[in-house]
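> run fold Etoposide-induced 2.4
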Amino acid sequence: MENNDNNIGLMMRRYLKQTSIVWLLGFREACCLHRVVIYCLRSKELMIRTGQCFLLNGFIFLGSIFILRSLIIPTLQWILPSGVVDGYEEQCSSEMPIRLYAFLRLGLLQLIYVLWFYPLYIFSFILSTIWYNDIAQFGLTVTGNGGPTNSSSYSQQEPSTSQNASHVDKPTNIGRVMIGIAEQGYSLLLLTFFFLEVYLTGFVPYIGKALNFLLLSWMYAYYCFEYKWNFSGLSLQKRLEFFESNWAFFAGFGSPCVLAIFFLSPLVSYGTMAVLFPLFVLTAAGSDADSIVNSLKEKWGSEELVGKLPIFYAADKLLMRILSLLPVEPRGQTSNKKAR
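> ok
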């Protein structure tokens, strides 16, 4: 019994050590922000897009929040006092003026949010989404990286386009496009349900914050690498397989993203992430995760590093359950209707 307990203890310590090493490697890859400077110096278009993201989200969006908190709100509190002046409570015969001032302050603040911050948030979200795609494309052009798998191994799994060009007809191309669109739609829905899962874990007692941090780390890491995988043409199944098989690495990669915003208010956290996100996208573009993983496998002599973790299992099951409720007509009935 003691020998078995010792063996189990040794295996656990070895597993924790290997997991920590893989996590630290992912964290280190995310912190290689010096790559961003190198890539921007190599590509003028990339420098312009990155500068536009910083100007819109950092200077305008976060600057607006700074002006609101440091100038507008104190001015409103001075013009419409809350009933306390220089540490002494005002002698008012009635509480009506104080309530009126509070109502006016709240109304003016809500008007500022409706007329400025909410439209600016929507404008920033839409424009930043377009810019992130451009930044990833320019970054991959500079780095020459394609995806999480080596180009040689990927070409072995997928026949090259040039070799099969003569054997591919037009319907097949249309079919590939439709499959790609379907995968993008399914990926979007899957990440939406996963985001819902991330949000709900924040309400779990005691361990909710820790779970929320871990799931957010995976979510941002997946977002960062998804641009790279999209341009490489990697299928959704292979992306999820690679991500879940190397969950410790991606948990480490996403941790710096979450650390930068975890303790901030929602608007400030959005603005901060909108500034930092393209930097991590470029870092992911220059990261050769496949080589790092393979080198550790060779070093430790194992096919898997820390085992596969079904990160998207709950989101996938919920999505499949909802899709199964949609009215889909069987093929047999469709063919019978066509025959009639």
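Residues 96-143 form the longest helix (48 residues).
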